[in-house]
Design a protein that fits this description.
mainly beta; 4-stranded antiparallel beta sheet; Methylamine Dehydrogenase, Chain H; disordered N terminus
């Protein structure tokens, strides 16, 4: 009997210690690195823990080679009024920027931003590019709002030096009032090493896998042009069993404090969806998986963080940001937003 009592006593102490450790869990903080530049930053690409690129309005591009301690700011000559909503960087010298609309442009630099070359131009009426994604340093894809009822898609296989438009009748069909939000460059992501997935919003929100001609309805509120899915993040996408974890964020950017239908989670590759027990605390324009269980999301009224794979979200900062991204080859996490504001997440992987 004494041995049994001792066992239960040890078990209770261990359980109490675990609960106490969980209660003392420290969430990461957000450290502001720089602000005051006349640009709204929505493009962010973190190559490694030192090399970071950003892009935004007023033809602005920024680069840091020392983890955000200092920045080189540049205005792309001839594009002083353009809005570069997305950027994909490969090293300290090579990056690609996307200017959204009429005409839509994609530009590339190979000398750290000293000069830029137009690698794609589209003057068609209604052109509006939303986001880019690259599977590797050669293969990439860009998605744009529907033209004549179909989403625009173009691809590159040479590090963004040339782009080839998808044949019109092979582009995904869009519903009336459906489009993509160019809010953070993250409404298209790699699903696996060969496929991409993108999401739509507006009067209807859906998830598209163009290579399979597959369309999945998302349970966001319908019927409002300013609401719906804005950002998607995929974890474990190299698995072949369909068990990919997907989180989709959004809400209504005209009601940035609303928590109604702003986050949905799938643990089976998008076949089924569920809402968090505690949702992010408002509209969120970007979401990023950091680990299997830790995810960060940001929006106009702050930054949320989860340590349990999206079930419960904690409001860790009330600073406004448009985009958050983790390093491709490292663990550093950065955020960017209005007024040239850039921040770093103080976290431990």
């Amino acid at each position: 009997m004494k041995k049994r009592l001792s066992f239960y006593l040890v078990l209770q102490i261990s359980l109490f210690s675990c609960l106490q450790a969980g209660a003392q869990k420290k969430y990461p903080e957000v450290e502001i690195l720089t602000s005051g530049t006349n640009t709204s930053l929505r493009g962010l690409s973190v190559v490694n823990d030192n090399v970071i690129w950003v892009s935004g309005s007023n033809g602005t591009v920024g680069r840091s080679n020392n983890g955000g301690k200092t920045w080189k700011w540049m205005t792309v000559t001839g594009f002083e009024k353009n809005d570069f909503r997305d950027i994909e960087a490969f090293d300290a010298s090579t990056a690609i920027i996307m200017s959204i609309s009429e005409p839509a442009y994609i530009l590339k630099t190979t000398d750290g931003g000293s000069s830029w070359k137009v690698v794609y131009e589209n003057k068609n009426k209604g052109m509006f590019l939303d986001a880019m994604e690259f599977w590797n340093d050669q293969m990439g894809i860009v998605v744009g709002d529907p033209i004549d009822g179909r989403f625009f898609i173009a691809k590159t296989s040479d590090n963004g030096s040339t782009w080839h438009e998808e044949i019109f009748n092979k582009r995904p069909l869009a519903d009336s009032g459906e489009g993509c939000f160019a809010s953070s460059g993250t409404n298209i992501r790699s699903l696996n090493p060969q496929e991409a997935v993108f999401i739509s919003g507006g009067l209807r929100s859906r998830m598209y896998i163009p290579s399979r001609n597959k369309v999945i309805d998302l349970p966001f509120l319908k019927g409002k042009e300013t609401a719906g899915a804005n950002s998607i993040s995929v974890f474990d996408y190299f698995k072949k069993n369909g068990g990919r974890r997907i989180v989709v964020m959004g809400g209504d950017f005209n009601n940035d404090s609303s928590v109604t239908a702003n986050c949905f989670l799938s643990y089976d590759g998008g076949q089924t969806w569920k809402q968090p027990d505690v949702a992010p605390h408002g509209y969120r324009s970007c979401v990023e998986y950091l680990t299997k269980k830790e995810i960060i999301a940001c929006g106009l009224n702050g930054v949320d963080y989860t340590v349990d794979n999206g079930r419960n979200w904690k409001w860790i900062s009330k600073e406004s940001f448009h985009v958050c991204r983790i390093s491709k080859f490292g663990s550093a996490v950065y955020l960017a937003g209005r007024n040239g504001k850039i921040a770093k997440l103080l976290w431990e992987p």
